[in-house]
Amino acid sequence: MNLIFDLARGMLSRRRRQTLVSVMGVALGVAFFIAIASLMRGFQTYFIEQVIDVQPHIIVKDETRRPLPQAVEIAHPDGAVALSGVKPTERVRGIRASAEKMAILEAIPGVFSSPILTGQALLRYGSRDVSVSITGIEPARYRRVSNLEKDLIQGRMEDLRSTANGLIIGIGLAQKLGVVLGDTIIAVSPKGVSLQMKIVGIFRTGLATLDNQAGYTLLKVNQILQDRPNVVNQILLKLDDVTGAEALARQIEARFGDRSESWEEQNRNVLTVFVIQNAIMYSVTGAILLVAAFGIYNIISTVVFEKTRDIAILKSLGFTEGDIQWLFLLQGMIAGLLGAVLGCVLGQIMIEGLAQIRFNTETPAGNDRFLLAHDWRIFAVASFFALLSASIAAVVPARRAARLDPVQTIRGAA
Amino acid sequence: MSNPALALLEAQHITRRLPEGVTLVQDASLKVERGEFIAITGPSGSGKSSLLYLLGLLDRPTEGRVLLEGRDTASLSATELASLRLKHLGFVFQFHFLLPEFSTLDNVLIPIRRLGRLKDAAARAQAMKLLEALGMAEAAAKLPEQLSGGMRQRAAIARALANDPAIILADEPTGNLDTRNAAAVFDIFARLANEEGRAILVVTHDAELAKRANRRVHLVDGRIVSDTRVAGSENPPAPANPPALPQS
After folding, report:
1. Which CATH fold would you assign to the domain B9-227?
2. What is the pTM of this model?
């Protein structure tokens, strides 16, 4: 109601300084929430984007989640069968019928797949030995599921095809070995196969594990090196719609039996940390808003205390208890709203300020500044909670005001 | 519309006892007619104000009942009582109780706006008319703190009259005023009763002023000990257009 709003505004304007203090309390809570949320969200979003960008969305592996069932268990699915001392059967590891599986996967719209064979090898250059993880790839397919091509700082992916036994290695590895583009080194696999390989590319991802320990060669070459002809031990998938990764991984696993991990599963530990981070953030800002709410409670209580005569006269004039309660609740909400607006402005200023800070470090992705999310929803959530806490804080004194007995007040004044 | 057979305001054997056992008003009965100017007198603590608050529906009697134009108010909710006060009753207290943040005009506008029957312009016109009638036109834009005591009380009277109530209840309205201003306030009340046909109930301890009323109710220890109509004004002139209570 317009009249009640005017009355509320009039009463608040009389206590300008105190109102300002409680408004500032709310504003600071809102501003800190916005700044912290923007920082955290910015980093988390960046991280997830990196993960989605760099990693395959689904990895199909040549293993099963549970050991393969034994014959006796298949024969007596409901029987009380206990087996002990079962040793894994000798079988060629790798994804069976990988070509057929890939054909099925590729038939799904928005899905790209790439078969790889990973294995260990020792790179030897002169007197230096470095143990590395070699991934055998098909460049044409691998290009679609990975950023390797983008990360190359020297050489080209096509050179893998045009050069016999071509090898792409990380910058850290190259420095460790002391090799440059075009050098020839010797790779020795655990199976004892030894190949002369030529460095045709050097990449830098910013991730030390990759830069120092990874090498890429043709799938065929790695199959020879690892002595595992025609074997593929992982299929990497990239999806147009990353949100469907987990569901698709479950489908693939149900159909093929091969363990399939979505990017969410691969990064579950980090994503869990995010949840905890967010919980901490919400508790801290919740505490700030709680303090702000006490400020609101304080000013509304003071106004109610000072305005007992006005409350009495308004009641004698015919204002209902509901009118009076609304009158003071509205004052709390006005203070909350002012705080929210001011807080949003302050929050934006804080974000701008944080964005100016530069760090003197070289972080993986070459970032030297805070990653800040610019999301209106953060502002909306902060404002909403500010308004909510202000309203809740004002309810108690507003109800007390509504229940004041005008007769007692007027008697006391006379 | 209004039924002349029914008393405008009637108290039937009302008693008000505080929970602690103190009796403020004891078995009081009173009929108030239109155009009556009633002075409620009595020593301090005799229950004058308490009786006024009971008649003004600000307080509820422990026993007995208060009827507004024949309608029993005992069963009404607090909200319904508030609505009756808003439409039919106007209060003036010893302190003006004007809201300090608002101009005189805005203070008078508060009950009008709360009732919400008049549009903005009409409401302002109504408030200005009331202020003019009380010689307060120039003070309309002033804050209460800028007014003299007498003017504040006149502004409070204007506010009490805002929704054209049939009954004005005043509790020591001249308690803080000098003799001249007190007399002026009583003049206004007399005019409101005689010319506009409103019922005026004034609690006062000033015997001289009480003489100007046309009926005097005297209380001692919460009981009405005398209820006298003043000679010569026993039958106040019937107003041409008595303010009517809508049948709500």
Report:
1. Rossmann fold (3.40.50)
2. 0.71
